[in-house]
Amino acid sequence: MSAERITFGAAAIPEPDRAWLAAVERLPIDSVWQGGHVLPPSDTGEAITRLALMTAWTERVRVGTAVLLLPLYHPVLVAKQLADLDAHSGGRVSVGIGVGGEFRHEFDALGVPVASRGARTDEAIEVLRALWGGGPVSHSGPAFSFDDVQLRPVRPPGADGPAGRPGGPPLIVSGRKEPAMRRAARAGDGWLPYLFSPEAYARSVRTITAHAAEIGRDLAGFEWMAYVYCSVRRDGDRARDDVATFLGGAYGDKPGAMLDRIAPAGTPEEVAARLQQYVDAGVRHLVVSPAAREDTLGVVTLAAEEVLPRLTLPAGVEVGVAAEAGAP
């Protein structure tokens, strides 16, 4: 695919906040994202609830889940919830989906075998597409079975035109391993990995492009995205301390050198140089997740106003073409 410009998104860390979102909407930011677990080990929210708040508290930006752990949800219910939110937002919802599994107890509590999460996700995607396609749907599969189910579109008060988008909101596949890449190539509207270095992203582009070619899928319109933890400060040392403190606890098994590869930190000039490597690897929509425990709006503001203008698209190179050529 080709893209006319590089776009920025931001993660609403630590929780969606009305004033924070209003400030972000005044920046050159195209999207805001937030995920969540059902039974997280800390006091953080759930993905659909957070998405509803972001939908209600924004007017312009695209809003998305990064990510929704799809195997934990019944697809009929989540199809209705997402379709309603998309309609009320004027078609601004995107759905980043992942399989989860890092917190096994939430799978056990919900009666979902953790070993089935990949297959259950694939089947749920099929159900979502069918229900959003309109008309009655019957489905018989290993995880879900139902007959003659039809979603009734919601038309918000004062709406003039269709309720939501035909076919539903885009499904952006997240993950880090090859099964997720194959899922993106087969059934996703885009790819949104996390904790990836630019080199890993380039390899994922090649994998997705190759698999799409094998199954005869045209990736025109496919969204090449990346969820990147980072900190941008006037004081580069403070930014690096942000990342070490923020990610050191959550990902303490990763050495500092690895954190440096997957979580850019520093001054606007330093972070731009690092994020340019992601762009060169094929990313066209960067979701900046502030790896900081305070003043996350400051991180996003510097990223949008002083990092984004420094990024440039590779001249005359499309993402798929670069992948086929083995370009980094």
From TrEMBL:
Gene Ontology terms, MF aspect: oxidoreductase activity, acting on paired donors, with incorporation or reduction of molecular oxygen
Residue ranges of the TM segments: none
Any Pfam family: Bac_luciferase
The entry's keywords: Oxidoreductase
InterPro entries cross-referenced by the UniProt entry: F420-G6PD/mer, Lucif-like_OxRdtase_Rv2161c, Luciferase-like_dom, Luciferase-like_sf
Region listing for Disordered, in residue ranges: 155-175
Luciferase-like domain residues: 19-285
UniProt xrefs under NCBIfam families: F420_Rv2161c
Protein name from the UniProt record: Probable F420-dependent oxidoreductase, Rv2161c family
Species annotation: Trujillonella endophytica
